[in-house]
Amino acid sequence: MTDALFLPNELESALRQIGAERYHVHHPFHRLLHDGELTRGQVQAWALNRYYYQASIPAKDAILMARLPTAELRREWRRRIEDHDGDGVKPGGIERWLKLAEGVGLDRAMVESTARILPATRFAVEAYVHFVRDRTLLEAIASSLTELFSPAIIAERVSGMLANYDWITEGTLAYFTPRLTQAPQDSEWALAYVKRHADTPEKQQAVLAALRFKCDVLWAQLDGLYLAYVAPGLIPPGAFVPGDAE
Ligand SMILES: O=C(O)c1cc(C(=O)O)c2c(n1)C(=O)C(=O)c1cc(C(=O)O)[nH]c1-2
């Protein structure tokens, strides 16, 4: 059976439905993190591993930017790289994430080295970068659309963590504040692009699959954290061990 062609707004609904079902806000690790159920060591493991995601995002965006055909499109995408890398004066997202990692008690050089992250983190993040390199431009742009759902999880995370961990301060979580305006700006643009360019059933199914893939990338990172640091506690050889950072 061939798939039907969605109207643009129907495609948007189908994309939002994927987020409602699969976004990492629903992962048990996030529930524990936001509800104050984790130890300091477990929060450190989260911050350490997520640094690799943060640090890889501008590389992913540079790969995507190189594939854009016009100056106008590249200008739009270039902003994302500046948001993460900063401009040499104003700190970007990577620097702000390092501040978060230091704020939860990690050594900056250890975090930056990425030597002690989980293999699951490395493989999931690399799969995202390779997806953006290898798939169509439309699928690559669609894979960024998890950002449609990030303002809600960020609001929940910041208020939950501030309320539930007395050793976490607003300054430590400052990474997230600019994301509340950057993410909607970026994702609304990407959504409009996808709605305009996914004009066949095949392309529409491909963008839906790209968003499912990206939800899996985020989910798999939290599976790795849960398995290693919550239960059953299978920390892979060489990976960060809570207590080591103190
Ligand atoms: O806090 C979060 O849960 C969350 C989720 C996501 C996401 O949905 O991919 C991003 C971010 N944060 C984020 O800070 C960020 O810079 C970012 C970039 C991207 C992307 O795919 O290009 N996603 C996300």
Describe this structure as you would to a colleague.
The protein is an all-alpha fold and 246 residues long. The chain has a single domain, classed as Heme Oxygenase, Chain A (Up-down Bundle). 69% of the residues lie in helices and 0% in strands. The protein contains eleven helices and no strands. The protein starts with 7 loop residues before the first helix and ends in a 17-residue tail after the last helix. 36% of the residues are buried. The model has no long low-confidence stretch (mean pLDDT 96).
How would you concisely characterize the structure shown here?
Pathway: Cofactor biosynthesis; pyrroloquinoline quinone biosynthesis. With 246 residues, this protein is mainly α.
Attribute tags:
single chain, 246 residues, mainly alpha, Heme Oxygenase, Chain A, 11 helices, binds pyrroloquinoline quinone, pyrroloquinoline-quinone synthase activity
Q: If helices are DSSP runs of H or I spanning 4 or more residues, what is the number of helices?
A: 11
Order of helices and strands: HHHHHHHHHHH
CATH topology name: Heme Oxygenase, Chain A
Helicity level: 55-70%
Shape: globular
Total tally of structural domains: 1
Q: What would you say the CATH architecture is?
A: Up-down Bundle
* Name of the level-1 CATH class: Mainly Alpha
Query: What is the first-to-last residue Cα distance?
Result: 59 Å
Fourth-tier CATH superfamily name: Heme oxygenase-like
Total DSSP E strands: 0
Summing up helix and strand content along with how strands pair, one would put the structural category as: mainly alpha
**Major sheet size, sense and barrel closure:** none
| Rounded mean pLDDT score | 96
Are there runs of 5+ residues with pLDDT below 50, and where?
none
Portion of residues in beta strands equals under 5%
User: What is the radius of gyration?
Assistant: 18 Å
Ligands and ions found: pyrroloquinoline quinone
